[in-house]
Design brief:
Elements: H1 2-32, E1 54-56, E2 85-90, H2 95-114, E3 119-124, H3 129-134, E4 142-146, E5 154-156, H4 163-169, H5 179-182, H6 204-221, H7 232-248, H8 254-265, H9 267-270, H10 274-281, H11 304-326, H12 333-347, H13 351-362, H14 368-371, H15 380-408, H16 416-422, H17 442-455, H18 472-503
Parallel strand pairs: 1-3, 2-3
Antiparallel strand pairs: 2-4, 4-5
């Protein structure tokens, strides 16, 4: 009996900690869980969608083999001929696809208002990667037009997607269409509000997480855009990219290091097809639905890929400086930038993003042709030019995208506050980085980049937003509920332990 009394508090302690840890895990899962969206024209939660006449191709609930929708493939048996149709191939993470989505809906409404028989379809290449490969889709967004009864695609430039042009290419009479009707789809949506997404609080571990997820996502969706093996140029670029990452990623990204090493060891197999690559990486990567980007998605997980890719680029450039500090031979900065440039050219499928980046690089934007050298240098200042050049390039992209969003929504030019948020780091995050004349302190900027992407110093600073974040209230409720569950579990454990301690007699004073 005495032995049982002695063991009871210990058993209670173990059980209490199990309950507490379980509650804490539930809390953490509620805080971080947020599946990335696969579609732009379909609400995956079952709520109503405002996509109008646009028909989203949904993935089947079970693996039924390759999907061959009627609007893209000729059926094997007799069927009525398909109507004239427009098909958009897109990726939900692509910023320009997101910007184009409301325009595509407006176009569909304007065209079907005149010719209801014309169909508008949307195919997410994230949900239907194999299908997009089979259709030779190598940039996003891509439009294809099909005349009635035909399966021969007429590739169509998104910039030319006006009502009159679409109808003309589909073989319809456009002689009576008025100019105002032609431009109906170009009218801005007054309900859309342009806003600047504030930088969210994060630390170096968030950056490493996002970079790793985007690297994995690219392997799953961005390396093979057609069936068959990589071309000689693509294969060389892919290998050079992997070899660069082995030298420039921090040791803390061990899982990514293991994945890169494995791919280099099995490179011939990995470069043969998407199915071969997917099979090789499967043991090293998490399921798609468990992927949650942290740093700058603002609650919209479909934005995570491009954000995480920039994180990977920044980590890599800081890593080159670190590598050159401790290793020989020195990696020339121009060699690194060329690998990055070629990777974007071959494996980043947001067409406008890719072309803008290549145009900036090839035209020596921010004096890149002189700042980056193809000769090894022993001067650390020369190495630092690489991450500083990429930082300037990224900020230019941020500012340009902000202006595009404002212009798309027919809003005034960005205010000083909005421009401040678009530049990173802002005055809120790094007040010592900027001078009064809006120029920057180079050493302070580099030190900030180093702390955010390499050294591990946290930066838990969030810029206040002028607007409430969407869906913030219900997300906060779930987080609070998870936290309270863990606290209540701890209290229950403590009470039970106290009772057990009381019954065991251990609280009584012992007389000697």
């Amino acid at each position: 009996m005495q032995t049982s009394l002695k063991r009871f508090p210990v058993e209670c302690l173990v059980m209490g900690w199990v309950v507490f840890v379980a509650g804490l895990l539930v809390s953490l899962l509620l805080i971080v869980s947020a599946d990335g969206k696969k579609y732009l024209y379909h609400e995956e939660d079952g709520s109503s969608s405002s996509s109008g006449p646009v028909i989203e191709l949904l993935a089947p609930s079970s693996d039924e083999g390759p999907i061959k929708p009627y609007f893209l493939y000729e059926p094997s048996s007799d069927h009525s001929p398909p109507p004239a149709r427009v098909v958009e191939f897109y990726a939900p993470w692509c910023p320009h696809c997101q910007h184009y989505a409301p325009k595509y809906i407006k176009l569909a409404k304007a065209v079907t208002a005149k010719h209801p028989e014309i169909e508008f379809h949307a195919v997410s290449c994230t949900a239907h990667n194999r299908l997009c490969n089979d259709q030779n889709v190598n940039s996003y967004p891509t439009l294809k037009l099909f005349r009635e009864g035909s399966y021969e695609a007429l590739k169509f430039n998104v910039k030319d997607a006006k009502v009159k042009n679409v109808l003309f290419r589909l073989g319809f009479d456009v002689s009576e269409k008025s100019e105002s009707q032609n431009n109906h789809e170009d009218q801005p949506d007054k309900k859309q509000i342009a806003r600047v997404v504030p930088f969210r609080m994060h630390d170096v571990h968030d950056a490493w997480n996002d970079a790793a997820l985007s690297f994995e996502f690219a392997l799953k969706t961005g390396i093979f855009m057609t069936n068959g093996p990589l071309s000689k140029e693509e294969s060389s670029t892919f290998r050079s990219w992997l070899e660069l990452l082995t030298k420039s990623l921090p040791i803390q990204m061990g899982k990514t290091h293991d994945l890169v090493t494995m791919l280099l060891e099995h490179f011939e197999e990995a470069s043969q097809s998407q199915s071969d690559l997917s099979r090789l990486i499967r043991p090293y990567t998490a399921p798609d639905k468990s992927q949650t980007w942290r740093a700058c998605t603002n609650g919209d997980n479909k934005m995570g890929y491009t954000c995480g890719l920039w994180q990977l680029f920044h980590i890599m450039t800081i890593g080159v400086v670190e590598y050159n500090r401790h290793n020989n031979p020195i990696i020339p900065t121009r060699q690194v930038s060329e690998v990055l440039r070629n990777y974007v050219e071959h494996f980043f499928q947001c067409e406008v993003c890719r072309l803008n980046f290549l145009d900036m690089y090839d035209n020596c934007a921010f004096d890149g042709c002189h700042r980056l050298s193809d000769k090894p240098s022993s001067n650390e200042h020369d190495w630092r030019e690489l991450p500083m050049w990429l930082w300037e390039t990224h900020n230019d992209v941020n500012t340009r995208l902000l202006g595009e969003r404002m212009n798309q929504n027919n809003e005034p030019k960005p205010s000083q506050w909005e421009s401040q948020q678009a530049r990173w780091p802002s005055l809120y995050i790094c007040p010592n980085c900027w001078r009064e004349d809006k120029s920057w302190e180079e050493d302070e900027i580099f030190n900030h980049l180093h702390s955010m992407y390499w050294s591990g110093n946290p930066s838990y600073i969030k810029i206040p937003s002028e607007e409430n974040e969407p869906n913030k209230s219900h997300r906060s409720i779930w987080k609070l509920g998870g936290f309270l569950l863990s606290v209540l579990s701890f209290v229950a454990w403590f009470v039970r332990l106290s009772k057990a301690h009381h019954h065991s007699g251990r609280h009584k004073k012992v007389d000697h």
